[in-house]
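Student: I would love a firmer grasp of how sequence relates to backbone shape in proteins. Thank you; the sequence and its tokens follow:
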Amino acid sequence: MATEVYLVRHGETMFNQLNKVQGWCDSPLTVKGINDLKRTADALSQVHFDNMYSSDLKRAIDTVHLMKDANLVSDIGKIKKLPEFREVFFGTFEGDDINQTWDQVAMAAGIGHEDDVTKIINQVGLHDFREAIKKADPRHLAENTEELNKRMVRGIQVLGDLTKNEKRVLLVTHGDFIKTLSIKYWNRSDGKHDIIFPNNGSVTRGILHDDGQFEIVDYNVDAEKL
């Protein structure tokens, strides 16, 4: 049985608002983030889900509970938290200014000063971009392409095992993770170049097929337009 997966990006956080790098580090949802999520939750309140899941980071957990509490047609028990769907890990850059971080990454990639992440990725490619983050990280802890890809593949396998008897599920995860997952599994992406970053509270819809294959069918959609 194929499973429809609603990937929801968590609401805006304090670090989002302050333009700080936020991967495995966490910060609370803002008032705007909560209000935006209420609109997403209301738009999905009549959509039946067999289950709801989330990343194990607090901003995702807080988001999934807003979705659960607002849903009028689903009987959801305890939320299972999946560390495989955490945000991308940025190592020593966690909590730093985003623009300054990308500038350091661009220098490590050999393209000079540049703080526009899309321009960096489109110049060097997604693989070398991830490698440059790890290279620029003084402790070299940031996830590179291979590490992140293994985690994404493992995440899909874990989700597939969990949802074998579920027709539709909701999973709250993170912006860069959703984007990178979509670059890999969306047929409108060439797998190399950057795509638009998903909005807070947006829905990206995927299909987990019986044979374990995964595909993205809708990306970064306002829940009210589904």
The chain has eight helices and six strands. The first helix runs from residue 14 to 17. The chain has a mean pLDDT of 96. The chain has two domains: 3-89+143-225, 90-142.
